[in-house]
Specification:
CATH superfamily: ApbE-like domains
Largest sheet: 8 strands, antiparallel
Strand order of the largest sheet: 1-2-5-6-9-12-13-14
Distance between the termini: 17 Å
Number of helices: 7
CATH topology: T-fold
Number of domains: 1
Shape: globular
Radius of gyration: 18 Å
Structural class: alpha+beta
CATH class: Alpha Beta
Order of helices and strands: EEHHHEEHHEEEEEEEEHHEE
Oligomer: single chain
Helix content: 25-40%
């Protein structure tokens, strides 16, 4: 069945300061079951924002940071994210480190797990879509994408935006399942911190990582930007992942075998 003949429906909401879209293909994509699943995705993401937003004074994260809330008394997911942040720091040899990051409002050093929370929250919320049997779906949160295609449906085509030309694409991937995550300077400037200097990383314009889980694809992309152009050998060691890197000079490099279309 071709993409053109599949019924489809899309929804978009602004959550976590990002456009979040859900695209569904398959029989009756506007059914009550599908609409309930999509709304559950958005509700999960709004809840994650309420718990972990560094911008909201009433978030569990900020209550905890001010010493007003013990981690054990916070939302049940709070301790899970703290554990994942430490695991991410270990997996990336310290290049992903949420400690001592500048507060997005004041610039004061603080603990900020935002670089992990989005991928984690989107991956968890996608569980609602996996319950929609017979439908293919794409969940896109500000350019970080998680997809699933049914066996008799076409693969999804995911464009990798050119960091110097938002209207242009560096590459188009075909994916049946899994994640595509991009970190870099195109949309938020030099916001990723080099943990060895405490200064914004500037040697890489963008890194796109593909893999089975958005949580880790996003973490690895962020760590790669912090690490700089020398990250390619490290990216090559990540089993099940592939990457495309654009240096500050515009040089494009890929891991072996590169972010090729998935089978």
């Amino acid at each position: 069945m071709s993409t053109a003949t599949l019924p489809r429906r899309a929804w978009v909401q602004q959550i976590m300061g990002l456009p979040v879209s859900v695209h569904v293909r398959g029989d009756d994509p506007d059914s009550a079951e599908v609409r309930a699943g999509v709304e559950a995705v958005f509700a999960d993401l709004r809840h994650a924002d309420a718990v972990f937003s560094p911008y909201r004074d009433d978030s569990d994260l900020n209550h905890w940071a001010r010493g007003e809330l013990e981690a054990e008394a916070a939302d049940p997911a709070f301790g899970e994210v703290l554990t994942l942040c430490e695991r991410a720091r270990e997996r990336t040899d310290g290049w992903f480190d949420p400690r001592e990051l500048p507060d997005p409002r004041t610039g004061t050093p603080r603990f900020d797990p935002s670089g992990l929370v989005k991928g984690w929250a989107v991956q968890r919320a996608a569980g609602r879509l996996r319950q929609l049997r017979g439908r293919s779906w794409c969940l896109n949160a500000g350019g970080d994408v998680l997809v699933h295609a049914e066996d008799d449906h076409p693969a999804w085509r995911v464009g990798i935006e050119h960091p110097d030309d938002r209207a242009g694409l560096l590459h188009v991937l075909e994916r049946r399942d899994g994640a595509v995550a991009t970190s870099g300077t195109a949309h938020r400037g030099r916001h990723i911190i080099d943990p060895t200097t405490g200064r914004p990383a500037s040697a890489v314009r963008a890194v796109t990582v593909t893999g089975p889980q958005l949580l880790w694809a996003d973490v690895y992309a962020t760590a790669a930007v912090a690490r700089g152009p020398g990250c390619l050998p490290w990216l090559n060691t990540l089993e099940g992942h592939a990457a495309l890197l654009v240096s500050a000079s515009g040089l494009v490099q890929v891991t072996e075998p590169g972010p090729a279309p998935s089978a």
